[in-house]
Amino acid sequence: MVDGNNFNANDYLPNGEDASIEASTLSGDVRDVLLTHVRSMTIPWAMLSEDEQRDKIYALSECAKDLVRRALAAISTTGFPSIVVGIGAVKIDKGLEIKLSANSSVEVITKLAEHGKNAAVLVLAEAADFFGERAPAKPDKDQPDLPLSDAAE
């Protein structure tokens, strides 16, 4: 089974392809990654055992989470620099003071240095907020329920 904490859509693409996500092609990019899963199925869904279907559902669920993370990253970088931050202490007095933390990578430091003390917009978004579903995906039962006959009543 796939480890949900370390899932990466690229791990499931053939020939080292990259599951790159861009805001302008987001819908097609997501479709292409999901189609990769469908195309890799050598056995039709109805012929898979319940456990095999459950494994496919799990892999696609983890793929969807990975794609949501990538989509959020792609959307957040359209037009403006963005930095993933952690929110620390919040102090409310005569104003609002928030302590943020971020990776100390060259990219983050450069973005902050270039932005300087100019005003900024902080968008509070967490990829996990978009992991919802209308209903859980379920595998087909290996042994369907038997129909109840009227004679048994």
Summarize the structure.
With 153 residues, the protein is α+β, with helices and mostly antiparallel strands.
The backbone outline, from C-alpha atoms, is: elongated
Number of strands: 2
Beta-strand fraction estimate: 5-15%
How many H/I helices? Answer: 3
Helix residue percentage: 25-40%
Q: How large, in whole angstroms, is the Cα Rg?
A: 22 Å
Overall pLDDT score: 78
The SS-based structural class is: alpha+beta
Q: How many separate domains make up the residues?
A: 1
SSE ordering: HHEEH
Characterization of this structure:
- It is a single chain.
- With 153 residues, the chain is of the alpha+beta class.
- 33% of the residues lie in helices and 8% in strands.
- The chain contains three helices and two strands.
- It has a two-stranded antiparallel ribbon.
- Helix 1 (26-39) packs antiparallel against helix 2 (50-76).
List keywords for this structure.
single chain, 153 residues, alpha+beta, two-stranded antiparallel ribbon, 3 helices, 33% helix, disordered N terminus
Topology:
Elements lengths: L25 H14 L10 H27 L9 E7 L3 E6 L4 H10 L38
